[in-house]
Amino acid sequence: MKYKAIIFDLDGTLIHTLPAYRYNIVGATLRDFGLKASEKDIDIFWFGADRDKIIKEILHVEPAEFWHSYRIYDDNQVHMQYTKPYDDIKAIYNLKSQNFIMGVVTSAPTHIAESEIKLIGEQYFNKIISAHVDNGFRIKPDPHGLIECMKHLGVNNTETIYVGNANEDIEAARNACVLDVLVDRKELEYKGIKPTFRIKSLYELFNIINHSYK
User: Fold this and answer.
1) What value does the CA radius of gyration of the chain take, rounded to a whole number of Å?
2) Which of helix, strand or coil describes residue 170?
3) Cβ-based neighbour number of residue 192 at 10 Å
């Protein structure tokens, strides 16, 4: 099988945000409510799929009130000071030179996604989708964003690979019937799900692609 398109998650896959950022802004948000949380609980919130449920059951705040306060502290300019591409990002440039169609499907809000993409280079991606509820998308692991991205790229599910760093990325890929690849950045625990491929570096994508061409 020859793959034509590779779609990527963004945060934790292509872009690294230093842990201090999430601890600072979530901590500041919780202080508005006279609360605090452990770094472990903040990690669960940051990487979790159902954030509203986590906010209510683990952080003990009503989600609407939390998000109102959180957005005050989630300053884009400050965020970018804590953010950089992973060292293996050059793999993206090599894939582009081999004429792969590439896209991004992220759960990050549009303003965050746009700023992070600029750190990599917008020219490398044919379509960028912020699959966020504010944009009318159903969030991962729902395949909504992936399906829309494939439509824009002009490819079908058998021609597509999705690369992510979390359980919901793998589940979204399988729900969209595309090949799932997990890049393990050693930042998360993976429970109850086994990806089709697990890689430690984006450069390992070439092994998967080359194997599919045999």
Assistant:
1) 17
2) helix
3) 6
| CATH architecture of structural domain 5-16+83-212 | 3-Layer(aba) Sandwich (3.40)
Per-residue pLDDT of 125-166, as tens digits, reads 999 999 877 778 888 889 999 999 999 999 999 999 999 998
Q: How far apart are CA 174 and CA 185, in angstroms?
A: 21
Q: Which is nearest to 52 in space by CA: 44, 62, 43?
A: 62
**Could you give phi then psi for residue 201, rounded to 5 degrees?**
-145, 150
Q: Which DSSP category does 134 fall into?
A: G
CB crowding 83-122: b at 16 or more within 10 Å, else e: beebebbebbeebbeeebbbbbbbbbbeebbebbbeebee
| Burial per residue of 59-71, b for 16 or more beta-carbon CB atoms within 10 angstroms, e otherwise | bebeeeebeebbe
* CA distance linking residue 148 with residue 144, whole number of Å: 6
Q: What is the pLDDT of residue 157?
A: 96
Sketch the domain layout of the chain as residue ranges.
5-16+83-212, 19-81
C-alpha distance across the termini of the chain, in Å: 8
Query: Do 30 and 127 touch, CB atoms closer than 8 A?
Result: no
Order across the sheet with 197-199: list the strands: 127-130, 101-106, 5-8, 160-164, 179-183, 197-199
